[in-house]
Amino acid sequence: MDKSFLVNLVDELNKKHGNFIEILEDNLNAAVSIEAKDLIKFMEELKENYGFDLLLNLTAVDYPENFVAVYNPVSTVDNREILVKVKLPKENPEVASLTGVYKAANVQEREVYDLMGIKYTNHPNLTRILLAEDFEGHPLRKDYQMKKRV
Amino acid sequence: MEINKENERVQEELASQGVMLTSVDKIFNYARGRSIWPMTFGLACCAIEMMATAGGRFDLARFGYEAFRASPRQADLMIVAGTITKKMQPLIERLWDQMPEPKWVLAMGSCAISGGPFVDSYAVVEGADTFLPVDVYVPGCPPRPEALIYGMLQLRDKIENPSIVKVKRNG
Q1: How many residue pairs from chains A and B have C-beta atoms closer than 8 A?
Q2: Sign (positive or negative) of CA dihedral B142, B144, B145, B151
Q3: pLDDT tens figures, A3-25
Q4: Contact A132/B87, CB-based, under 8 Å?
Q5: Percent of chain A with pLDDT strictly greater than 90
């Protein structure tokens, strides 16, 4: 995505709602970072006013000092993608669920909850999707201890 | 020794007239061994090799085993082909319970035998024999179709000579 579009978008939204978006420097000129409380507002703006109609990817990263939830809305009409990163605290990571905005977020959030343990508030059915229902723990966290084989 | 010789003589004479003397058990085992109906139970990559074995090049139909039944109620061999995950294990047990006797298990591939290359994972069960009475193990990752055929022929031998290999089922 060309840099001017991103700068434009960020400026317009910052003017509208107060400075809540920060541009991150990367090779694709498409990464922004926001707070967890502004997520729904930002995603709704992107979907309605800027044509980002497809949520391509929803995932999370486990850093030593925090979690980061990563979203990848894509505009299929303008052929653009944007990367949205939300920092979350290590203990009790929670963020609002995007199922109201993008339907695709439903199963992807279940997968992130299953493997990383990030809770998505207001999700219609936040249960394990990949592992067995009675599995304990979140295996893809860096501090998950594997059980020794008998 | 004499009885055996007598036995043979009698059988030869009968055979020359088109009569075979045998026992019901032997006949049943002969029939069961030569018409095993496997259940389609492909879990992972070994399923592809199982399909290839049933295909045209390495034909399972030559031996009478081409009728893969999808329903456990109609099958008598469960070929566990692929990795068993902890989520799948209760379902495999349920399907095993639904199969009518006599039934056998063939563990195909290293994942079904002992967990395979994924045995250290948090979600993999270490082999089918932790919860099923496996009769034949076919090693490989995946085993070649010829290996699977050899395994099924070994199972046929086992079915026809049950006294040679006695399996304790659930103690």
Answers
A1: 22
A2: negative
A3: 888 888 888 888 888 888 888 88
A4: yes
A5: 55
